[in-house]
Every structure is written in structure tokens, then in C-alpha cells.
Amino acid sequence: MTREEIIIKANNALADEFEKEIETFSPDANLQETLEIDSLDLVDLVVLIEKELGIKTAKDDFANVKTFDDFYDLLYSKQR
């Protein structure tokens, strides 16, 4: 998948799972604040990403993820 395809699929999955509008997902927005998730919700996020995008991640992979752009970079690097 291209980075753009990952962004589209990830945004659609996040919007459905966390009941948010995709328009609020700007690259520099804080991921956890925008989605209103805590550390326990990260487990759900890991499962969602594997189910919807087929990309395996672990909760620990999100330690340095602050923004949506960081999140997209993580997914892109993991799928390669």
C-alpha cells in the first residue's frame, strides 16, 4: 500500500471505531486527544489496525506516536 492508501484506510477505520469525523484528523493533531483514547484503548487500536489494514503493531510501537502523521509513519514503516 502507498502511504496515501494507508492514510485513507486508517482514517476510515478510526472514524468508525472511535465515532469521530475524519475532518478532525489533521496530520499535526494529537492522536490520543483527538480520538479521546487512553492507554487501554491502544490495545483496541492495535487490534483494529491488524484487522482493517493487515498491519501488525504492538502497544509499545505507539510510545513515540504523538500526532496522526507519526501514526501514519508507523503504519507505513510496519507494512514494508
Give a short synopsis of this structure:
This protein is an all-alpha fold and 80 residues long. It contains four helices and no strands. The protein has one domain (3-79): Non-ribosomal Peptide Synthetase Peptidyl Carrier Protein, Chain A (Orthogonal Bundle).
What does this structure look like?
With 80 residues, this protein is mainly alpha-helical. It has one domain: ACP-like (Non-ribosomal Peptide Synthetase Peptidyl Carrier Protein, Chain A), CATH 1.10.1200. The chain has 4 helices and no strands. The chain is globular. The model has no long low-confidence stretch (mean pLDDT 94).
CATH topology: Non-ribosomal Peptide Synthetase Peptidyl Carrier Protein, Chain A
Total E-strand runs: 0
Number of domains: 1
Largest sheet: none
Q: List SSEs in N-to-C order.
A: HHHH
Fraction of residues in helix: 55-70%
Distance between the termini: 9 Å
Q: pLDDT under 50 segments (min length 5)?
A: none
CATH class division: Mainly Alpha
CATH architectural grouping: Orthogonal Bundle
> CATH homologous superfamily?
ACP-like
Structural class: mainly alpha
How big is the Rg?
A: 11 Å
What is the arithmetic mean of pLDDT?
A: 94
The helix count comes to 4
User: Strand share of the residues?
Assistant: under 5%
Query: What is the molecular shape?
Result: globular
